Amino acid sequence: MTAVVDADTEELLALLEDEYARTIILETYRDAQSVEALSDACNADPSTVYRRIDRLQERDLLADQQRLDPNGHHYKVYVARLEHVAIDVTDDGFDVTVDYREEDAADTFTRLYEEFSG
InterPro entries given for it (predicted)? Predict the structure, then answer.
């Protein structure tokens, strides 16, 4: 019997297998991080980090937030949305469940304000 793995599940598993993607998730789980900080943590070029960020955001595993630096400039930081992944074996193949972290009220307000003023 060949295991059935749909394209979404296969894409998610491949992404979680990627060392850079895992590092980004771990680094952003507790505190939001800039691309520069993530590049240092991954020991990778910012372009590599941006590609992983794009893939993680496509799967809704990573969110971005705007921050204001002391000079009045805006920059993005990233925070993990992934809370838990469960993989169950079934008669039909694999069943993957992803649990996401909830945004706190301040993050929700900031995101909505940025979308409105955007």
Answer: WH-like_DNA-bd_sf, WH_DNA-bd_sf
